[in-house]
Write a structure and sequence with these properties.
alpha+beta; binds 2-(butylsulfanyl)adenosine; 26 strands
Length: 736
């Protein structure tokens, strides 16, 4: 496709022409984005793509009033090679936007006794007043908060840590079941309202999405074969389950129309209503939500006893496989909202509701083979490969068994001791179980009469990845070569890049495999030395330059992370997010922690003698010392929490301010800065609107954002201004 230019410089085109061209360009770019990133099937060269993008940006620059919040320029920006312009982390900001009211979790029960105890507690708290419960399906998707102001959809935020989540407005805007405006026809609309619901993908939509992917895959494979390229693994692969696609599509930084359109939000709670009619019951809430035009769960019933709750769950469980959506249990909630108040909440869940979960799904399958996975610390995990089954209506066998809509091709056999105890062998029939998000497991062997069994399984005596002689550590067998084993390295990198650690967008799975296999990366520090040209191995896979640039930019953007993330990323034994945070608070700086004695470590909440020894031992290990030196040499820095303003110092200057960030601020990655500001009470949002209080514009700011801010009279803060204001906040803390 040739790039069309309408001629003349942007500023000279008339508004109507510009509008039409912006629409045409946006659509073309979106289409190319999909082809580029998702389908690995580019239609235009990088130069042509860049030209389209530049043209759109120029037009928008000349006509800021025509910039749509969903314009491709407002999401991922084109980067010059590897340079962080501060705009690369699209609109989504990890932990960035505070909820209007905390999004609590649900307490859960797996048996009737626990439900009985819940009922008893409710009875007791209500001092004999009879409770009435509303029963709903427990939808298995991703939690979301929808905020409406004056009836207009304002933003959507993921649950995150319950206090603050990610801004996912750009994706939710495309969800059909989320009205842009609440209907006022049959119920008054409050000034500000926070609606809580679940983002799901109906099974039928999920299947349609996969069919579309299958068609594109065939097309891409046909093309590859025609061009004499290797067609294996080419094109989009099928998704495994609706839940993960739903939460992935929701959190995706860049809008993916095809997926977002297929999402559905079912609303089930109202939080924090400002203005509007007071509600008395949950049934009332559900009908108001419906009157406003939102979808709510189906088959809602009421109950007064534990038996009725059990019967409801039984009926849903019986129908579980024929529903068009996934559920993992039912929820019982008090109907009377005043009674809810009396029950109150813990910091984790309300005391007025209970999820009564289904038992894990189990199915029989045959073990086609047993393979060994190598983990981050070298532990070898035996994994059963499950024999493919031929679905009744299918033309070809599926790559595994179906367990509640999820295709399961592998199930864990835990460790050396377990596989020996259960005596699982190749060819055996086994019971496989999947509960929630956890890795499917082999529960037990199913006895078969008159069937000859294979030879007993023996865990390999050498590491399958590097060949090192394996050693036994308690019930585990492990590869001892922590330095040279490529499988351990891959797992370490995956952990380093994961969500609670360095949180590097797009660095996972096959990408890591390729980087390590091609010898481009041989330690975590190498990641930060990557340039776009180093990603040549990916060119063979048809990954476009833009994809490679984005990956490099995403890595570079995470050069500086808070100390707690840094520690999680290193993989200090027993140190999860919570302990890491305590360590970061206590020691402030990495160097101080590195000099800590076992006694000092032990004095920390949550750290006992065993963990203290393990941390000390880890920090003294030669490989760890080397890795830390390499990271330092690559410019990777752990930001001491003390240098960040105290999150408790709710300086008035930031509290409740709506802030938009653009451009680069020296010393902070964008996410880091967002979480600092949120910590100070600000709300960080993605787009400049009339509600915005402040636009923080660092180096190389997004021009359209700045112009919009000027137009709307939004206060602008440059880097110096920001530092001053943060400094003042910090000083206010010190003065206490
Ligand atoms: S009520 C304060 N109702 O389950 C309690 N939650 O495990 C608000 N969920 O994060 C939640 N279906 O996303 C409620 N009918 C339902 C639900 C439901 C699914 C999710 C929700 C929550 C999670 C808690």
């Amino acid at each position: 496709m040739a790039v069309q230019r309408t001629g003349g410089v942007a500023g000279q085109s008339s508004s109507a022409e510009a509008r039409a061209e912006i629409a045409r360009l946006s659509e073309a770019i979106r289409r190319h984005n999909t082809l580029y990133y998702r389908l690995s099937a580019p239609e235009v060269s990088d130069a042509e793509y860049d030209a389209l993008f530049e043209r759109l940006r120029a037009l928008e620059g000349a006509h800021p009033d025509l910039v749509h919040a969903d314009s491709p320029t407002q999401g991922v920006e084109v980067l010059s090679d590897g340079v962080d312009t501060g705009e690369e982390v699209a609109v989504g900001l990890e932990g960035g936007v505070e909820h209007l009211a905390p999004m609590l979790s649900l307490d859960s029960a797996h048996d009737l006794e626990t439900v009985g105890r819940f009922h008893e507690r409710v009875l007791e708290a209500l001092e004999g007043e009879p409770p009435r419960y509303v029963l709903e399906p427990k939808l298995d998707g991703a939690s979301v908060e929808l905020v409406y102001r004056d009836g207009a959809f304002e933003r959507a935020v993921t649950r995150g840590d319950g206090r603050a989540g990610e801004d996912v407005t750009h994706n939710v805007t495309r969800v059909r079941s989320v009205p842009r405006r609440l209907s006022r026809e049959s119920a008054p609309v409050p000034r500000e309202v926070s609606i809580r619901g679940e983002v799901i993908m109906y099974r039928s939509d999920f299947e349609a999405l996969n069919e579309e992917r299958a068609r594109k895959r065939e097309e891409a494979m046909r093309l590859a074969r025609e061009e004499g390229r290797d067609a294996t693994g080419v094109g989009p692969q099928p998704y495994k389950n609706p839940r993960n696609v739903a939460s992935g599509a929701l959190r995706q930084l860049e809008l993916d129309e095809a997926k977002a359109r297929r999402l559905t939000v079912l609303a089930f709670e109202l939080l924090e209503v400002e203005g509007g009619e007071p509600l008395e019951t949950h049934t009332g809430t559900l009908s108001v939500l419906g009157a406003w035009g939102l979808l709510t769960p189906e088959r809602v019933r009421t109950a007064r006893s534990v038996d009725e709750i059990a019967a409801y769950r039984g009926a849903f469980e019986a129908d579980r496989d024929s529903l068009d959506y996934e559920i993992d249990g039912v929820v019982a909630k008090l109907d009377d909202l005043a009674q809810r108040e009396r029950l109150g909440s813990t910091s984790h869940h309300p005391r007025w509701a209970l999820a009564y979960k289904f038992p894990p799904r189990q199915r029989e399958a045959r073990v086609a083979g047993i393979l060994t996975q190598v983990g981050r610390t070298g532990v070898l995990t035996p994994v059963a490969r499950l024999e493919a089954v031929w679905p009744e209506d299918g033309l070809e066998p599926e790559a595994g068994i179906r367990l509640g809509g999820v295709l399961v091709s592998r199930a864990s056999l835990h460790n050396r001791e377990e596989v020996e105890r259960k005596d699982i062998r190749e060819g055996d029939r086994v019971l496989v179980q999947r509960a929630g998000d956890v890795i499917p497991q082999v529960v037990a062997r199913v006895e078969e009469e008159g069937v000859e069994r294979g030879a007993p399984y023996r865990m390999p005596s050498a590491c399958p990845a590097c060949g090192a002689k394996a050693v036994d550590r308690g019930p585990f067998r492990a590869c001892p070569d922590q330095v040279g084993c490529p499988a351990q390295l891959k797992a370490r990198i995956a952990h380093f890049a994961s969500r609670h650690a360095f949180d590097i967008e797009g660095l996972a799975g096959r990408t890591i495999d390729r980087l390590v296999d091609a010898g481009v990366v041989s330690g975590v520090a190498d990641l930060f030395e990557l340039a776009v040209d180093d990603l040549a191995p990916f060119v063979k896979e048809g990954k476009a330059t833009q994809w490679r640039r984005n990956l490099v930019a995403a890595i570079h953007a995470r050069r500086e992370v808070a100390l707690d993330r840094f520690l999680v990323g290193l993989g200090v034994p027993h140190v999860g997010a919570a302990v890491a945070r305590s360590l970061a608070h206590r020691f402030g700086e990495l160097e101080a922690l590195r000099g800590a004695t076992v006694e000092e470590l032990q004095a920390i909440h949550g750290v006992g003698p065993i963990i203290a020894e393990a941390i000390r031992g880890f920090l003294d290990r030669r490989e760890v010392v080397e890795t830390l030196a390499e990271l330092e040499a690559s410019g990777v820095r752990a930001l001491p929490l003390s240098l960040l303003p105290d999150v408790d110092a709710a300086a008035d200057e930031w509290r409740d301010k709506r802030v938009v960030l653009t451009g680069r601020i020296e010393g902070y990655s964008r996410r880091e800065l967002a979480s600092v500001l949120v910590g100070l009470g600000a709300r960080v949002t993605a787009t400049v609107t009339g509600q915005t209080d402040l636009l923080v514009a660092g180096a190389n700011p997004g021009r359209s954002k700045v112009e919009k801010a000027i137009e709307l009279g939004v206060e602008l803060l440059d880097e110096r201004g920001l530092r001053e204001r943060l400094g003042r906040s910090a000083a206010a803390t010190q003065a206490r």
